[in-house]
Amino acid sequence: MTVVIETRGLTKRYRGGQLAVDRLDLAVPAGSVFGFLGPNGSGKTTTIRMLMGLIEPTAGTASVLGRGMPRAAGAVLPQVGALIEGPALYGYLNGRDNLLRYDSADPTADPRTRRARVAGALERVGLTAAGGKKTKAYSLGMKQRLALAAALLQPRKLLVLDEPTNGLDPQGMREIRALVRELAHEGTTVFLSSHLLDEIEQVCTHAAVMARGRLLTQGTVAELAAGTRGRLAVTTPDPADAARVLKELGVTDVTVAGDRVSGELPVSDEGEPAEPADLNSALVRAGVRVRAFGVERASLEDAFVALTGEGFDVAG
Amino acid sequence: MSRVENVSTDVATAPAPVPAAGARSVSPLWTLGLLRSELVTTFRRWRTLALLGVLAAVPVLIGIAIKIETSDGGSVGGGPEGGGGPAFLTQITNNGLFLVFAALAATLPVFLPMAVGVIAGDAVAGEANAGTLRYLLVAPAGRTRLLLAKYAATLVFCLAATLAVAVSALLVGALLFPLGDVTTISGTSISFGDGLIRAVLIALIVAASLIGLAALGLFVSTLTNSGIAAMATTVGLVITVQILDTIPQLHGIHPYLFPHYWLSFADLLREPFYWDDVLKNLGLQGVYAAVFGSAAWARFTAKDISA
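Predict the joint structure of the above. Result:
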């Protein structure tokens, strides 16, 4: 397996002494769509900035496309498109001129194809019509699209997208997801940080979870989700009775929401989860009317909450 | 996002767009694209144009004021040597060309350095403040290359600002006052053509007088992520240093202050030229550019870009 991003013991301690990233060992396989998860303040953006050569690690190494960063930034970054912590634009320039400026900052970008590439990037993010408008008049979603266009000015081997759907409407989010899939299909590795777990689940093949500067886990999305057991969910017009019966049968963490009762499947002494069908027949025998019965597949969100234990609370 | 819908056909028909890493042949000239972009970005900004407009308005004000004051046939000030005020004012009614020298002498202590302080101070800090700095660096602009482009663009602005004053002064002088042979400070007379050449030379020397300040402003700009703070600090330094330059007790450090020899450009209106102080000025500017340019480089290349 070739890796596109690899960090070994990557550590960043800010001058105040705050440890933002703590001995991070990350491996992003080539061709993957890699979801990078973590609560706010968990060190995701600091990691991305170190990968992009913007800040110097306190300890450890980071390599991108096989070359050490930040030393090889000049050789590596032309092959990397990046969206870091939201869009940043020259408000007094129009969208097209913003892209022309970012493109001319790249010494490996051919000035003869610059205008054509800028037009192509604008079209790809759906901004052709707004390309002549000053960007200070753009909505957040349009700015986000333009920043994405800047990342797509050249064919890239790696795209680093930090919260790419921030500020986009649902339609825009769908388009970004489709774009990410399309790019991945073309062979670009996509490194995607996001707060939106279902988004990661929809587009990512791999994921890593960070909290308080430490890497909690990384692997394929399927592996991560498999790490947590499913929950029993019963839909019934008699929720109170159902909850009582399920508790008697050893189901833990029973919660009732409207006509929906859910809980953790009981585990036998041998460590095997109980057979759901037995629970169902027990419910019916007790006279509980059941509309729907099943075990919900564990989502990435469950895996995430199980790992961080704190949901999306900001780390202190 | 029209391409999004036909993903499969796109991929099937288009040739692989990703060239091998080494296949992209790069011309060394492409690196100049950043400087060009820097110039375009600087000079398309309203703020830059407003600064140039204010500078160009100074000679207009001086010219009109002198025209009104002398409309009764009197001369500026008292006697033939003019009682104080900026240099060259008394000569303007005889020869409009002197408005160029007078306007440069009037703007060099305050207006020109303020304008340069705004542009130089904002150069890096303004980009950091707007967040555009991180995108330029991951483009990748290269830190040394970006700093050089910023400095070069600031120097071009120094020249543009000086020319804005000089050209405006020449036009106003030609409109309001007679033109003709130029009487030098030494009392000799040179032709109008020679006088014009000296005006160009003086404008270049005035622009070069701002080289040190431009480097100082750029250095300040690498210290902070606030464009406003960097501009204010740079302009504040200009004012402070000029005050220090007027305190007689500090005469020991005067030759090392960057504005100390600024007004020496008047020596180029002597016959023959008196170069000593002009060369000292240029040398001092070179030292400031080297010292603060290096400091800016050392700071900027080692800085964590967290904005």
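The mean pLDDT of chain A is 85.
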